[in-house]
Write a structure and sequence with these properties.
Keywords: Lyase, Magnesium. This is Terpene synthase N-terminal domain-containing protein. InterPro entries: Terpene_synth_N, Terpene_synth_N_sf, Terpene_synthase-like, Terpenoid_cyclase/PrenylTrfase. This protein is mainly alpha-helical. The protein has one domain: Alpha/alpha barrel (Glycosyltransferase). Helix content is about 60%, strand content about 0%. It has 6 helices and no strands. Helix 2 crosses helix 3 and helix 2 crosses helix 4.
Length: about 120
Amino acid sequence: MVMDRITDPIEKMHLINFLCHLGVSYHFENKIEEQLNHLFIILPELLDDKDYSLHTVALVFQVFRFNGYKMPCGVFSKFQDGDGKLKEEVVGDVKGMVGLYEASHFRTKGEITLDEALGFTTEH
């Protein structure tokens, strides 16, 4: 009922994340899966079109990866400079840095962007 009333896809991602962190998501597995299937189709376009913060992008990435979706690590490219390194200005974004640190733990072998993100966030 609550999930259906939320229209903003990012708010839905926050709700799904909260349910997972609270350990009660198993009560809503079918509804969460239904929402994630829908969101997985529309969110990549939203992430490209809107100027979301590092924290928001990291949250979306984590929720999808946690639930078994192959979210591409390229969503973090707008936070990288021309050399593929993370921009130094993200260091001042504490929530974003923590989110990126957590997201980097969902990396798979060969995802250099997330390997570097782990080192970068750990260092800073």
